Amino acid sequence: MKITSLSFGLLVLVLGLILGSACAEPVKPYALGEDCDNYVLARVGDVDITLLDLLEKPQTFSLIQEGLITNEIVRQEAARRGIDVDMDAVQAQMDDMIAGYGSTEAFLDQVGTTMPRSLIMSDVRDYFILQEMKNAILEHEYETTQTPVPEEKILEFWVGSESAYQNQVGAEKGMDPELVTMDDCRYLLEDTIKQQWLGEQSMTFFLDLRTETDFEFYLFDVMNGRESVDIPEIENELEEEPVVEEVPQLTPEEQAELEAEGTHIPLEDLVQGND
Description:
The protein has helices at residues 6-22, 34-37, 51-55, 58-80, 87-101, 104-111, 117-145, 151-158, 162-173, 186-212, 219-223, 252-261, and strands spanning 40-44, 47-50.
């Protein structure tokens, strides 16, 4: 199994790493100053390819929007629904993919070696995790909005295709197909209806989800200047203000009385470091 979008995922990952490390002011991740614009990504002969060269390409914007933003929306939606990813299933899919290439080394050789190999495998794992999240979200959506399947829907799938269902269920259960009823085929009909719904929604559900989700996309504003937009900085944790205890104010008479008893030291006599 080859991942056709792997190269796109790798580019997004590289961009994320660069943006996180190249900017001179890390608390302002969206502000690309001269240090970032002149950050050299590669050098061909005596020509430098810079971060600015990458950001000025149209596909960069779509990669950030389709990759980083959409993936974060998916993660948040999975968390909202209480969905946990089955990491054993993720590993099994990775193993199947690697088996298709013969070995991990063969897969990495096919992908290329322009990135550290550990990052390539990490990105592949993230890809499968996102796919598991998407599948689980769609399964949850189906179970909560489309079940129980209406009887008329089951009948719609049965009429005109009953012989195909009868033959399949008859073969599975060792029955004469002519004796197989719609109720005998109900589990198969319901699964067919479910798979059709999942296939249809896989094309549109997450596009709709992104449309319905509030998010800000600042990269265009950054590239075009910051005059007309407020781009937030990373918020630092608020430090608790020290509690200042109020010192009781003494009247001149009270102060004189305490000094006479030897229990009061005038403020001007207090020197830092003395007891």
